[in-house]
């Protein structure tokens, strides 16, 4: 046990005093968080679908009978070992090392060689690089902790939004709380009253504009932008909204699909502007 504490202490000393060690540590931690993000992105929508099925059954027990509801339920929780989606095999620890396993397996399932989506690798890489960026900004430990949390949450939001067009309060609420804590600990340039008033004002403004049909935002989008407003203030969040609208319009033009959802990336840009 002594050895453990000594090693941990030495490691901490190394990380605090050696900037190279700090970057390596950020890279590894980021990759691991990215790996966890992949798990959440994969499982959370299934869990939400389960809740919806249960609600449906409880509200309309005759239309959706218990046996049919049970058949629709996916077997998921946030705990437990991961199973390959392609062939239902347990993912071994050595196949679960962030970034490295993906490259080692050349992006294929270890059991059935099905191609694994590159977004697993992308999320791990993006989170690793963002963690390095945050460390290089020279934030203190508390700021680093909250910035990493909010970055991870936004990356989850972006993933789930793009894949499922879903922006559940299970994600926007924690972002809001993180924003409140960041204001509380003076990690941003905004006071609590400024943040809260901006958020409420923006919420009212967006809701009115939405009911009048003047903007194309989902309820989740509104909640998300209001949540980040607490930490970045109304001015910044309006520019984020403008940027996000512009970029989603551009992407829609390029891809010729009905635009709206590339927005989650806009938030991203914003968080880094105020982080810097
Ligand atoms: Zn497989």
Automatic annotation (TrEMBL):
Gene Ontology biological process terms from the UniProt entry: signal peptide processing
Top-level taxon of origin: Bacteria
Annotated transmembrane regions: 20-41, 120-137, 143-162, 183-205, 225-252
Location(s) in or outside the cell: Cell membrane
Pfam hit, one: A24_N_bact
GO molecular function terms attached to this record: aspartic-type endopeptidase activity
Keywords: Cell membrane, Membrane, Transmembrane, Transmembrane helix
Domain annotation Prepilin type IV endopeptidase peptidase: ranges: 150-247
Membrane topology: Multi-pass membrane protein
GO cellular component: plasma membrane
Record carries keyword DNA repair: no
Domain Prepilin peptidase A24 N-terminal, chain residue ranges per copy: 28-136
Entry-linked InterPro entries: Prepilin_IV_endopep_pep (IPR000045), Prepilin_pept_A24_N (IPR010627), Prepilin_peptidase/N-MTase (IPR050882)
Family of this protein: Belongs to the peptidase A24 family.
Protein name in the entry: Type 4 prepilin-like proteins leader peptide-processing enzyme
